[in-house]
Amino acid sequence: MSNPQISGGTMSMYTGFTRLCKGITVVLVGGHIVVQILPSALSYLALIPAKTIPFAWNLITAGYTEQSIYGLVISTIGLLFVGKLLEPIWGSREFLKFIFVVNFLTSVCVFITAIALYYITTQEIYLYMPVSGFQGVLSGFLVGIKQILPDQDLSLLKIKAKWLPSLALLVSIIISFFTTESASYLPTMIFGTYIGWIYLRYWQRKPETKRRGDPSDEFAFSTFFPEFCRPVINPLATIFERMLCGRRSEMSDESGGYTLGSTTLPGSDPIEASRRRERGARALEERLAAERLAATGRADKTEENATENV
């Protein structure tokens, strides 16, 4: 009697994936197959800073080209499961826009960093190391979860969802001390996290309010760090925020306002940010309830079939 219910509950985890996420998964699988069959294609699809000027398209294609089967598995699983949560809340168009912007700007940042490191160290490895993979966008997705469901408890990890981006980066940095391949993914994850936060903090348009971004203190840059670090992080974040987003931060009338460090600027609307998190939590509860209902229905149907067979 319990086996059908367990089977139904397990199956419900693997259903409900959006069509857009399935389509992007096909792109990731296709990119991996291409570089496995034609290794020379990696020179045209991956981000190789020395070749980016003539092959500028690799700023886009690099994010969809997985070189290893492990990276492909992690990327597809992360895309399908996180996309099932974020896309219904953001909408398909905004979800696709987020992927494109984070992927492209992450590649641009990695390119600029590689060129700078080459001129500083004169080591050509920074110019010719192929960098590719979907991990930058996945890191941005974790920032989206932090924004929408910050206080959601993750029983498996014993932490709240708001710490997912920080934990992912911390683990990646620790692993980088024990592997030589970290240069191919760590910068992408760091920039993917930061660009994802920049997008959600300042650029994401809210059609219901005609405003952009999330100015709440709960989504400030310092919240990625432990409490004892924030007195140091806040002044630094304020400097970089004024350098990179100063003009946009001044447009409080148009965008609804932002915060510099821990100070809320005029026009900010933390109530809207709170409502957004409530919608995220409600959407998650509705999806879980629907999956439980579907699992129960399948279990009842299986039990009826078993009874008829007997």
Q: Can you walk through the features of this model?
A:
There is one protein chain. This protein is mostly helical and 310 residues long. Helices cover 66% and strands 4% of the residues. It has 13 helices and six strands. It has helices at 2-13, 19-37, 42-45, 58-61, 69-90, 92-121, 125-128, 135-148, 164-176, 186-203, 230-250, 252-255, 270-309; strands at 153-154, 159-160, 205-206, 211-212, 259-260, 263-264. The strands form three sheets. It has a two-stranded antiparallel sheet. Strands 3-4 form a two-stranded antiparallel sheet. The protein has a two-stranded antiparallel ribbon with strand order 5-6. Helix 9 (164-176) packs antiparallel against helix 10 (186-203). It is globular, with a radius of gyration of 22 Å.
Write the layout of secondary structure elements.
Layout: H1 2-13, H2 19-37, H3 42-45, H4 58-61, H5 69-90, H6 92-121, H7 125-128, H8 135-148, E1 153-154, E2 159-160, H9 164-176, H10 186-203, E3 205-206, E4 211-212, H11 230-250, H12 252-255, E5 259-260, E6 263-264, H13 270-309
Overview in brief:
The protein is mainly alpha-helical and 310 residues long.
Q: Provide the β-strand percentage band.
A: under 5%
Care to count the β-strands?
Answer: 6
Helix and strand sequence? HHHHHHHHEEHHEEHHEEH
Overall shape: it is globular
Helical stretch count?
A: 13
Helical/strand content category: mainly alpha
Give the termini distance in whole angstroms. Answer: 14 Å
Q: Give me the side-by-side strand order of the main sheet.
A: 1-2
Helix content: 55-70%
Query: Any idea what the radius of gyration is?
Result: 22 Å
Largest sheet: 2 strands, antiparallel
Mean pLDDT: 79
> Uncertain segments of ≥5 residues (pLDDT<50)?
1-11, 249-268
